[in-house]
Design a protein that fits this description.
This protein is α/β, with parallel strands linked by helices. It is built from nine helices and 20 strands. It has an eight-stranded mixed beta sheet, sandwiched between helices. A five-stranded mixed beta sheet has the order 13-20-19-16-17, with no helix packed on it. A hairpin with a 2-residue loop joins strand 19 and strand 20. Helix 1 runs parallel beside helix 9 and helix 2 crosses helix 3. The protein is globular.
Length: 522
């Protein structure tokens, strides 16, 4: 059966060059597909899982020398899993990092900044209902935005971002280490994605491109006053993965889960920016980017990051925004894993504004700010009685100027669109599905699946000469995937499947289309 999308709602705000739409898909239950349809009805949440410990430096009330005190900090995440899913099935993992300007909420001049921010939780739950395991993770905070010295502001925020990359790497290793043993969460370590919004976007973009220590030693990351590199990786910080560099002191390094891989297969950012465009090279990870064209905090193209809420603006560092990132990513063909393999109404609308840059979802209009998908409890902020509550809410409104008018309902429509654009690209890039909306011709007529009924063994024969099998999946009648494997050759025998009696759909992905056949297991 061919998968057919039926958009039932389409909203386009009449801003000049505005891209804002809400889409709802109605798909027949038997056509629902795991990893970009929400095939699970509920989510299991395990809170405050410690994934590592690392040394932190908080620049909140700096002493005269401008440095805070380094202390060990437990790093935690909340883990979201599809309720009722089989934890023994290898499942893809998404690690998500929150926004917050590398400072605690409220202190950062805004209303968000933790792993429990409303939009992070909502997106984590949606991805979990699609079949992903999702970890909303903390990372170390701290820099000195109030320094009158631009070199201090630049050095401290660069170090904060560097620590974030180390923490994200440690979080990946936490799961790869667990998967090598008990595999508590049923993770397939070849299918890991990392994403972040706002400040978390800075971290994930750096994580996806910073692959050599020499890349942090470029001119703009040199402190001319102190006559040293801003990131002191040898003496203090360690390498980008959070390990001591051989033969160096690494005084602040606490190594987590050494001996396990730190690698994900794809990243995505909602806002944020890349520390330096030179980091992005051929062979860097695939990236999916969502960005407000008129983002007041992180430039959409090339620009300078400024400290939020300062007047006049206190500049920090020049960076590459999502447009520049995706221009370079497409130039190097780093998005080949999903390029041209997703085509739906979200793609069509994004393509009206992204100048043909596959993987870039622009959001236009000043009223969309930097995070129109975020929301918060304004009444609760006012009830705290903080002397700067008005300033905090004013700064928060810059990220979502219409929040005070439409609140959560409007933000949720943006979440709809973000998930509609990002999730299919994650699924295709991770090899979970062959394509979405592209070449999904029904090729069932020339595929033989037997015996039917069966007592357990299933044979699949491809009688096409011009379409090669790529993957075979078995789904129950709710659409939940109960088995999948890569496929090659013209025939495959599937045995020891452990299927309970009932009806199943055998789904074969081929280059050029899909085949689906119903099978009864006795």
């Amino acid at each position: 059966m061919q998968l057919i999308y039926k958009p039932t709602t389409f909203i386009m705000k009449q801003f000049k060059l505005t891209l804002f739409f809400c889409l709802a898909f109605v798909v027949s239950a038997s056509a629902q597909r795991r990893y970009f349809d929400e095939v699970f009805s509920s989510v299991k949440v395990t809170e405050s899982v410690t994934y590592g410990v690392n040394a932190t430096v908080l620049y909140l009330s700096p002493p005269p020398n401008g440095l805070g005190q380094a202390v060990p900090e437990a790093l935690r995440c909340d883990i979201y899993e599809p309720e009722g899913d089989d934890p023994n099935v290898n499942r893809p993992l998404v690690i998500m990092l929150h926004s917050g300007n590398f400072l605690p909420p409220l202190v950062n001049g805004g209303c968000t900044g933790t792993r429990k921010d409303a939009s992070d939780v909502e997106m984590a739950r949606r991805l979990a209902r699609m079949g992903y395991v999702v970890a909303c993770a903390d990372y170390r905070l701290g820099w000195n935005p109030a320094s009158p010295d631009e070199s201090v502001r630049r050095e401290t925020i660069i170090n904060a971002a560097y620590r974030g990359v180390q923490d994200l790497s440690a979080c990946v290793r936490f799961f790869t280490k667990d998967a090598a043993g008990a595999n508590t969460y049923g993770i397939d370590t070849t299918k890991i994605a990392a994403g972040g919004q706002g400040t978390g976007g800075y971290i994930t973009l750096a994580y996806s491109t910073l692959d050599r220590q020499s890349e942090i030693r470029i001119e703009k990351f040199y402190n001319l006053d102190a006559k040293r590199w801003m990131v002191q990786d040898s003496a203090l910080m360690g390498d980008r993965n959070g390990f001591k560099i051989p033969g160096t002191t690494g005084a602040l390094v606490i190594e987590n889960h050494k001996g396990h891989t730190s690698n994900a297969q794809i990243t995505f950012n909602l806002g944020g920016a890349l520390g330096d465009s030179s980091w992005l090279e051929a062979g860097s990870l695939p990236i999916i980017s969502v960005h407000g064209i008129q983002d007041p905090f992180a430039p959409y193209k090339l620009g300078v990051v400024a400290v939020p809420g300062t007047n006049p603006p206190l500049n920090v560092v020049d960076v590459s925004g999502s447009y520049d990132v995706m221009m370079r990513t497409n130039k190097f063909n780093n998005n080949a894993s999903y390029k041209g393999k997703v085509y739906d109404v979200y793609t069509m609308q994004a393509n009206k504004l992204n100048d043909g840059l596959e993987g870039l979802f622009p959001i236009a209009g000043a009223a969309n700010g930097s995070g129109p998908w975020e929301w918060w409890d304004t009444a609760a902020i006012k009830a705290l009685g903080l002397p700067n509550a008005a300033t905090i809410l004013r700064n928060a409104d810059l990220s979502n100027p219409l929040h005070k008018v439409q609140g959560k309902a409007r933000a949720m429509r943006y979440v709809d669109s973000i998930m509609g654009y990002v999730a299919p690209r994650l699924a295709v890039s991770l090899g979970l599905v062959a394509s979405v909306g592209v070449d999904e011709r029904d090729l069932s007529s020339n595929i033989t699946v037997y015996p039917n009924p069966t007592t357990g063994t299933i044979n699949v024969v491809n009688n096409w000469t011009n379409h090669q099998m790529q993957r075979i999946a078995i789904r129950d009648m709710s659409g939940k995937m109960v088995f999948e494997t890569g496929a090659n050759g013209q025939a495959m025998t599937l045995s020891n499947l452990g299927l309970r009696p009932g009806m199943y759909i055998v789904e074969i992905a081929l280059n050029g289309g899909l085949a689906r056949n119903k099978v009864v297991v006795q």
